[in-house]
Specification:
By secondary structure, the protein is an alpha/beta fold. It contains 32 helices and 24 strands. The two termini are 54 Å apart. Belongs to the ABC transporter superfamily. ABCA family. CPR flippase (TC 3.A.1.211) subfamily.
Length: 927
């Protein structure tokens, strides 16, 4: 027995959760194959990386060089490897126990970007690439500043050819080449660019060449003179303003006026040395992403320190800054992680592959109307949304966790180097967005096939556009960053951007032997804006999806706030319909319904008062009145049958009572609850057997009944007992049928299961739309017995085309034609009222047909011929004009005059009454 009252929120949530888990169990191997997709793609990346390692990373050209040397003189050589046997390209991979020292260099602006002082220098120097290098100086004491400025630069060039580094240390060397990642090979030394010697004045054609390093890391460089200009500024604010004004604009290299460095001597005096140094740390590396690891600051510190020493002790006292060098290092290998570089497109596809799965599941329930049938049996929006969302979230979370485990286990640096918690939070946020988008987009599709095609276009299109277009725009520093933010609002691009940043961090981390993405890089990497976009879009999409679903399920247009003019005009048309004279029985039913509407409580389960439904006209056609003012009262314990031809309005009435469509006007109550306002509460006590079976093909009959039984608040032993009894009642218990998937059922078995679902849990109101369609006679009779037994505590509204079914099951019948009731009452009363005649049938030879007609005229002068073919004639005889004995006497007398092959006299059937009423009303409508 069902518990008193409707099922609670958590009971219904438990029901759909169990159903989903059972459904998931049926698809266990499909889920395994889905989860294996990330593993397959990760293996593909590992294979690509292995091929790249063999052809590039581990090639002889990218290893420390080796040479075969005959050390013993016996003609047998021994392979020896080291810097001295390597080419210049190979040498960087060798072990370097004693790194090469490099002269310290100062970073200066390129000639076309150097500052120009309007009072001293002609701006045309930029065209000749001869502008001086500007150093700004300020402090509390201008005289000390001037003295130190004079000591910054050496006025003549000196060189010690025996000790190159010592000779170069007497001069201020500079380069326009930004710092390298390391100083094992200084980029300024090994490149083709010149080294500059900064002097107060440059002699004409002053260049000098020098060689540095040992083979194979030996380089010959050209050193050119560049003028250095020391300028005093009154305070640090002026320097800040000048630096800010000359800063690089946007992402281009064009500047207004860039200085090399600036010094604030503060309160420096002969006993106190206190200085602040401005230097440019904003130059980007070759990829345009990060500042170089090695900044050329030491020469700036040495410059001012040496000038202060000479200020105190005289020009002969110097602090020589001879060289800088790296720490010794072991032998290294080229570590280009190609798998991380191409990873974003693969992992975009991997994560987005969940989207079609979720979308197809939601659209399938919509296409098969399973969501609506669940709602009709009491599943509210709250439990459905909560469990469905958590269900998809759990599957998606397991999916991305498996992706991270697979990727780490097979050695992909993309996963191993980046912080696991950072990766998980990013994936977790995005799968939440993906689920909410699936809920939102599902409202736009009604077919699984269409949704699937659109979803896969989105999946593969996002990956391809991300790798070919969006990545190019990210790396193009001239493209406005604001537009990058706008593009990231497309969910596929926000996912790709996050994966791109993770891949770049993994690539550079593996290359330099450092870690990848960490939480400390959150703001610096741009991931903060990606996270923000994902969170905001998730909130907007989940809110919009819930609103659209809530409004659409109520039969409204989610994009219309007020009633449309068309709907208002339809309501006026309905109110303007003239009231026609009703039949007496229909009028009495209307009066009864009106009285019941005024009572605070009633034993009647269903009360309808002047219920109307008008469908808007389309393609130039006028509006269609499907239901024309239906008034009806059905008490508990009664089965009310609705008869009528196709298109009479029966289905529209059932759809209004089950919440599929909203009535145009009028009102209806189910146990005191109005269907327009309290439909969610009505659903908790309602059962529905739709015209077409709405079943999950992969759930068994028993699992269907367990699910719907839980929605009706059945628990424990009561639930199991109710399921067993339902299966037995509809003959689905034998031969293991109850535990077979519903997709393997025959049409009759599905029909019986639908009836069992509508009756489980003893609902207070049940709607059955042609419940016995497709059943054999034995199954039909068994089903009728079940329905008849169930109506003792339930109000049932049943539509059927079977007159035999209507007479067997229904306590009252209503014949529905052209949107209104034409008659109402129990079957016997209706047959007595509309069937006051006999049907006489006789078959004779053709030449005797006229004699048969004369015979009937003698018996009943007002008889009507209904049928005539090949000697068989059928007549309708009024019961008021004839007695049965008179008919028998007339037939016996006729047999003596001509041969009678067959004859019969039958009372009017319900089918005859139905045809008579339907034809009469149809004639009235079209006449």
């Amino acid at each position: 027995m069902a518990d008193s009252g409707p099922a609670s929120f958590f009971t219904r949530a438990n029901a759909i959760l169990r159903k989903n888990l059972t459904y998931q169990k049926r698809y266990i191997w499909s889920n395994v194959r889905l989860i294996m997709i990330p593993l397959y793609l990760c293996i593909v990346l590992v294979c690509i990386q292995a091929l790249f390692d063999s052809q590039v990373n581990n090639s002889l050209d990218n290893q420390c060089g080796c040479k075969c040397i005959d050390k013993t003189g016996e003609g047998q050589c021994e392979m020896v490897c080291g810097v001295e046997y390597s080419t210049r390209d190979q040498g960087v991979f060798c072990a370097i126990p004693n790194p090469q020292p490099w002269p310290p260099l100062m970073l200066i602006p390129r000639p076309q970007n150097r500052a120009v002082d309007s009072n001293l220098i002609d701006g045309s120097c930029r065209g000749r690439n001869s502008c001086p290098v500007t150093i700004l100086v300020t402090g509390n004491n201008q005289s000390i500043g001037a003295a130190l400025s004079r000591n910054f630069l050496r006025r003549s060039f000196t060189m010690n050819s025996f000790d190159i580094l010592s000779g170069l240390a007497h001069n201020v060397l500079a380069t326009t080449y930004k710092g390298s990642a390391t100083s094992y090979l200084d980029a300024a030394i090994v490149s083709d660019l010149s080294i500059y010697n900064i002097q107060p004045r440059c002699p004409p054609n002053s260049t000098f060449q020098f060689s540095i390093g040992q083979s194979p890391l030996n380089f010959t460089k050209e050193m050119r003179c560049v003028q250095g200009l020391n300028l005093w500024r009154n305070n640090s604010r002026e320097i800040n303003h000048e630096i800010f004004r000359g800063y690089q604009k946007g992402n281009s290299d064009e500047t207004i006026s860039e200085i090399a460095a600036a010094y604030d001597l503060l309160d420096t005096n002969k006993t106190n040395f206190n200085v602040s140094i401005w230097y440019n740390a904003t130059y980007m590396d070759d990829s345009g992403n990060k500042p170089p690891k090695l900044l050329r600051v030491p020469r700036l510190v040495s410059l001012v320190a040496n000038a202060y020493l000479q200020y105190l002790q005289g020009p002969r006292h110097k602090i020589l800054f001879e060289f800088v060098k790296e720490m010794p290092k072991q032998e290294t290998k080229l570590r280009l992680d190609i798998a991380s570089l191409i990873g974003p497109i693969f992992f975009t596809w991997v994560i987005l592959l969940l989207f079609p799965v979720i979308l197809n599941s939601l659209v399938y329930e919509k296409q098969q109307r399973l969501r609506m049938i669940m709602k009709m049996h009491g599943l509210g929006d709250g439990p459905y949304w909560m469990i469905s969302y958590v269900y998809f979230l759990a599957i998606s979370t397991l999916y991305v966790v498996c992706l991270m485990i697979f990727g780490s286990a097979i050695g992909l640096k993309f996963f191993r180097l980046n912080d696991y918690s950072f990766q998980f939070i990013f994936y977790f946020l995005y799968i939440n967005l993906q689920i909410s988008l699936a809920f939102l987009i599902s409202s736009a599709f009604s077919k699984v096939e269409t949704a699937s095609v659109a979803a896969y276009i989105y999946v593969f299109g996002s990956g391809l556009l991300g790798s070919t277009l969006f990545q190019f725009l990210i790396e193009d520093l001239s493209f406005p960053r604001g537009w990058i933010f706008v593009l990231e609002m497309y969910p596929g691009f926000s996912l790709f951007r996050g994966l791109y940043e993770l891949s770049q961090c993994a690539f550079h981390g593996n290359l330099s032997g450092r870690d990848g993405m960490k939480w400390r890089d959150f703001s610096y990497s741009g991931m903060d804006e990606v996270f923000s976009i994902i969170v905001v879009e998730w909130f907007v999409s989940i809110t919009a999806a819930y609103y659209i679903d809530k409004v659409s399920s109520a039969g409204k247009n989610p994009f219309k706030i007020s009633p449309s003019p068309q709907r208002l005009s339809l309501q006026k048309q309905v109110s303007a319909v003239s009231i026609e004279m009703e039949k007496l029985d229909v009028t009495q039913e209307c009066v009864k319904a009106e009285k019941l509407m005024l009572e605070p409580s009633t034993s009647h389960a269903i009360v309808c008062d002047d219920l109307k439904k008008v469908y808007p006209g389309r393609d130039g056609n006028p509006p269609k009145m499907a239901v024309r003012g239906l008034s009806l009262a059905v008490p508990s314990g009664e089965c009310f049958g609705m008869l009528g031809p196709n298109g009479a309005g029966k289905t529209s009435f059932i759809n209004m009572m089950t919440g599929l469509v909203k009535p145009t006007s009028g009102s209806a109550f189910v146990h005191g609850l109005e269907i327009c306002k309290d439909m969610d509460r009505v659903y908790t006590s309602m059962g529905v057997c739709p015209q077409h079976d709405l079943l999950w093909e992969n759930l068994t009959g028993r699992e269907h009944l367990l699910f719907y039984g839980r929605l009706k608040n059945l628990k424990g032993s009561d639930l199991n007992q109710a399921v067993e009894e339902s299966l037995k009642s509809v003959n689905l218990i034998h031969g293991g049928v109850a535990d077979k998937p519903a997709g393997k059922y025959s049409g009759g078995m599905k029909r019986r299961l639908s009836v069992a679902i509508s009756l489980i849990g003893s609902p207070k109101v049940v709607y059955m739309d042609e419940p016995s369609t497709g059943l054999d006679p034995a199954s039909r009779m068994n089903l009728w017995t079940v329905i008849k037994r169930a109506k003792t505590h339930t109000a049932i509204i049943l539509t059927t085309h079977s007159m035999e079914e209507a007479e067997f099951l229904c306590d009252r019948l209503g014949i529905f034609v052209d949107g209104r009731l034409q008659c109402i009452g129990n079957p016997k009363v209706i047959k007595g009222r509309y069937g006051g005649s006999y049907v006489f049938t006789m078959t004779t030879a053709l030449e005797n047909e006229k004699a048969v007609e004369m015979l009937i005229q003698d018996v009943s002068p007002n008889a009507k011929k209904l049928y005539h073919i090949a000697g068989t004639q059928k007549f309708e005889i009024s019961k008021e004009e004839v007695r049965i004995s008179e008919v028998f006497q007339a037939v016996e007398k006729a047999k003596s005059s001509f041969k009678v092959f067959a004859w019969g006299l039958a009372d009017t059937t319900l089918e005859d009454v139905f045809i008579k009423v339907a034809r009469t009303e149809a004639f009235n409508v079209f006449s």
